[in-house]
Amino acid sequence: MRAWRFALGVALVLAAGALLPRAVGNAYVFYLGFVTLQYVVIATGWNILGGYAGYVNFGGAAFVGLGAYAAVFLDHAGLASLWLQIAAAAATGAVFGLAMGWLTLRIRGVYFSIATLALTVVVNTVIVNWSFVGGARGATVPLPAVPPWFPDSTSYLCFVMLVLCAVAVATARAIERSFVGRGLTALRADEQAAECAGVATLRLKLLAAAVSGAILAMAGAPSPYYTSYINPESAFSIDYALNALAMPLIGGTGHWSGPVIGAVLLSTVEQAATVTIPSEVNLLIVGLVLIGFVVAAPGGLLALGRPAATRAAVLWRRVFGASRTTPSTTPRTAAGGPP
Predict the structure, then answer these.
(1) Would you say 230 and 223 are in contact if contact means Cβ atoms under 8 Å apart?
(2) Contact yes or no for 64/240 (Cβ under 8 A)
(3) What is the pTM of this model?
(4) d(CA 71, CA 160)
(5) Residues 255, 277: Cα–Cα separation, whole Å
(6) For the chain, is the Cβ count within 10 Å smaller at the N or the C terminus?
(7) Cα separation, 265 vs 305, whole angstroms
(8) Helices (H), the chain
(9) By three-state DSSP, how is residue 323 classified?
(10) What is the second-level CATH architecture of the domain 3-320?
(11) What average pLDDT values come out for the chain (339 residues) when binned by 10 residues?
């Protein structure tokens, strides 16, 4: 997809999102839209480090909660501009991601995943014992200032999340198509070989960790305003950690559209199931779906969407191998010439 087509598509989506509050009066539509778009941002941010670089991060909830409490901190400090709080949350997430990467990206595999999970516990513990942002009892925040165009705060926050979604997807697409994306792909395939080829693997991993952390924290910043209340249990919920991992794997981690597809599908199913089954069963369903995709479709839905002819050709080469004969191996000679 060319850049101008992508930019045009983003502009049309944003325009439709701005016009939607005038056409739809059902508040639940904007609630569902907010949750779905937030998960698109979370899945896209997670995929930059977990998908492109291949470092499975279990600490997604730490960044989302950190972004939410960065907004709470600024609100209590008197800086009530929502967009300023989102920018500050992104900067905080980038710094935290850089610090996390410096401490943990020298290890790989299950050890890296355990280390990122431990960071979630550390950040959660700090917030629980920080009275300025509410501590364990949580904190309330007032509704944000709503522009005149939007009828209420719910529709406005949904549009804010749509803007953040556009920023996250555009960033992931730009990284994927740049030398950074190519370096991360080489790193994921074989980190030692990439280092031997001259790829600055540590710098790329630190950059991916910083960008991933910024996007994840950015996704959490509007959350306190959406419910007017937040506590550590909801800010660092296991739902964020699990869905941040599941959605890119279901959609596909090799392309920027994979996390978008996975987030839209899985969050829609979750919201439909929430009204009929308990939340614990909801998590069980997510886990079973994730296991099913890991076993049946390791490449996600994008891999399943390949043309049938391509999949058949790949299967043929795997089963029978490449042909060992090549046509016309005997040199052709002119009449009367040497053989």
Answers:
(1) yes
(2) yes
(3) 0.85
(4) 14
(5) 33
(6) C
(7) 15
(8) 3-23, 27-47, 60-76, 82-104, 110-128, 153-176, 179-189, 191-196, 201-220, 223-227, 232-235, 238-251, 257-274, 279-296, 300-304, 308-320
(9) coil
(10) Orthogonal Bundle (1.10)
(11) 83 92 86 93 95 91 95 89 94 94 85 88 93 91 88 92 96 93 90 88 93 96 91 90 90 89 87 70 74 76 64 58 46 44
> Can you state the angle between helices 153-176 and 201-220, rounded to 10 degrees?
170
Separation between Cα atoms, residue 194 and residue 163, nearest integer Å: 35
List the structure tokens of 320.
């029978």
Q: Which residue has the tokens 């709503």?
A: 146
Type of residue found at 220: G
Report how far residue 91's alpha carbon sits from residue 95's, in angstroms, rounded to the nearest whole number: 6
Tell me which residue has tokens 């778009």. 37
The helix (H) or strand (E) run that includes residue 229 is strand 229-230
The length of the chain in residues reads 339
CA dihedral 194, 197, 200, 201 (to 10 degrees): 10
CB distance 20 to 161 below 8 Å: no
